[in-house]
TrEMBL record:
Pfam families: Guanylate_kin. It catalyses: GMP + ATP = GDP + ADP. Keywords: Kinase, Transferase. It comes from Paenibacillus uliginis N3/975. InterPro entries: GK/Ca_channel_bsu, Guanylate_kin-like_dom, P-loop_NTPase. Belongs to the guanylate kinase family. This is Guanylate kinase. Essential for recycling GMP and indirectly, cGMP. One of its GO terms (cellular component) is cytosol.
Amino acid sequence: MVLGTIFVLYGPSASGKTEIQRHLTTDHLFRIITVTTRPPREHEIHSIHYIFTDKKQFKQGVADNQFVEWTQYNGEFYGTLKSSVEEIITGDQNAVIILDIAGVRALKSLYNNVTAIFIGADLESLQRRLENRNMSRKELTERLNKAKFEELSEPYLNLADAIVWNSDETPLEQSIHRVQTIISHGVSAE
Ligand SMILES: Nc1ncnc2c1ncn2[C@@H]1O[C@H](COP(=O)(O)OP(=O)(O)OP(=O)(O)O)[C@@H](O)[C@H]1O
Ligand SMILES: Nc1nc2c(ncn2[C@@H]2O[C@H](COP(=O)(O)O)[C@@H](O)[C@H]2O)c(=O)[nH]1
């Protein structure tokens, strides 16, 4: 195993990225926490799920060149701090991070040791899971449409080094195990 590898989980909203990341128990695996301007969900905690900030501070961070990459999603900003990534690239541990496709592209273009793991689920599973979230109908529709027209499309999947389907008929433990195997033994172990 090459240490200093960043494993990026990406895929549509509610595909299970956060849940899978939360259960990974691989040794020497650091979780890179990203920054967002979107409001926290009920259960989300500052510095654990995200570094929550406001738009003014985020824009200042962009101006100060603090981000290695940043993106906009549903009218909110999301970004990866340079400091959090460089700690891994120059260190001796692996890391896992959750990004959108722009983030995957950016990290792959900047660093060698980046493995992109697409976490997917069918639209029915995504809809059911999003309906369980306390979000507006408008946001739910936007997230589902993004999944339908972008995040489940070929260009999105083609960027993946490994694909893990985590629809409702797949036990979550099985998906966690697959991601854990990829992280511990590499994509070819799949
Ligand atoms: N295999 C599964 N079967 C049933 N439910 C699942 C499965 N995997 C994840 N879930 C549930 O789906 C919901 C969404 O998962 P999660 O929050 O991890 O998605 P996400 O991909 O991180 O979404 P987002 O990008 O919007 O933050 C959670 O309630 C989670 O428990
Ligand atoms: N390019 C980046 N994408 C990010 C970052 N942090 C999260 N994300 C992605 O944003 C969407 C929306 O996230 P949500 O928590 O509001 O559902 C999702 O695809 C995340 O993967 C980041 O720093 N950079």
